[in-house]
Amino acid sequence: SFFNQRYCEYFATQPFISSDPFNLVLETKCWNSIGLNDCPQDPWHNLDTDGMHPMGFVIKNQPRRFLADEILSKNDDPEIICYEEDGSYKDNSTEFCFKNIINSTLEVSSLADLFDADALDWIIYPVPHYVERLAERETTFVYRVGTPVFQLTNPEGDIYTMQSYNLRKNPDITIEDLPYINDQLFSMPEDWIYSSTILDKELRLSSNGKAIILRDELGNTYQRNKPAARKNELIEGGAISNYLRIAADR
């Protein structure tokens, strides 16, 4: 089971020409350690991003813990890359490895969007807290009977289930703390509800190619239980101009 497994990831990113002169377009590969190791702190700290991506730059996304028990994906043979304890590349290592699980295209309306107060979060979260974004991917997250789940519910009745919790802002947070973080969600919109429960039946969150994701101010990530009805649900009418498009080969 992947439940409560610590993991980390990094993003190899390079800019390319956009058809829209007002947008910067970034092509990104995500490398993730989930299912391979628990992201030991020393090699993660030692991982040197200089020179890893000569045509662009690399951003390390700080450790998190995953909350689903299982991931079902159409990409069942991802590319894997490994490193030594000192952070140097090693092709035949098995101790500190990452798999390429996402290829994405990120559009931002200005360079200022990249370097706001939330520094390294921009590559994953190009929109504000509690605002939906679209992730084009083919995945199903499976939460088994007896698994604790943590959810947001908006006034329209949409439910968002937490898929991972962030360790960067609070490295000491544990699974036992999650039922009580409601008092820390200061920017949660009015009439939204945060709750926790123990599943008495299996929960499957299938993206059907169009997952809807948001985050809270603690950096925890949620997926809407109901996927997008259509590809452009979030971007028609200019509702969201900055969004992450994740290739459906995940």
**Main sheet?**
12 strands, antiparallel
Q: Calculate Rg over CA atoms.
A: 18 Å
Cα separation of the termini: 19 Å
Provide mean pLDDT, rounded.
75
Shape category: globular
Q: Total helix count? A: 1
| Quaternary structure state of the chains depicted | single chain
SS strand fraction: 35-45%
Point out poorly predicted stretches.
107-126, 230-250
The helix content is under 10%
- What is the element string, with H for helices and E for strands? EEHEEEEEEEEEEEEE
Structural class: mainly beta
DSSP summary, beta strand count: 15
Question: Any overview of this molecule?
Answer:
By secondary structure, the chain is mostly beta strands. It is built from one helix and 15 strands; from the N terminus they run E-E-H-E-E-E-E-E-E-E-E-E-E-E-E-E. The chain has one helix spanning 41-46; strands spanning 6-16, 24-32, 57-66, 70-73, 80-83, 96-108, 133-135, 139-143, 148-153, 159-166, 193-198, 203-206, 211-215, 221-224, 244-246. The strands form two sheets. Strands 1, 2, 3, 5, 6, 7, 9, 10, 11, 13, 14 and 15 form a twelve-stranded antiparallel beta sheet that branches. Strands 4-8-12 form a three-stranded antiparallel beta sheet, with no helix packed on it. A hairpin with a 5-residue loop joins strand 13 and strand 14. The longest helix is centred in the N-terminal third of the chain and has 6 residues, at 41-46. The two termini are 19 Å apart.
Keywords:
globular; twelve-stranded antiparallel beta sheet; disordered C terminus; mainly beta
List the helices and strands and how they pair.
Elements (H helix, E strand, L loop, with lengths): L5 E11 L7 E9 L8 H6 L10 E10 L3 E4 L6 E4 L12 E13 L24 E3 L3 E5 L4 E6 L5 E8 L26 E6 L4 E4 L4 E5 L5 E4 L19 E3 L4
Antiparallel strand pairs: 1-2, 1-3, 2-6, 3-10, 4-8, 5-6, 6-15, 7-13, 8-12, 9-10, 9-11, 10-14, 13-14
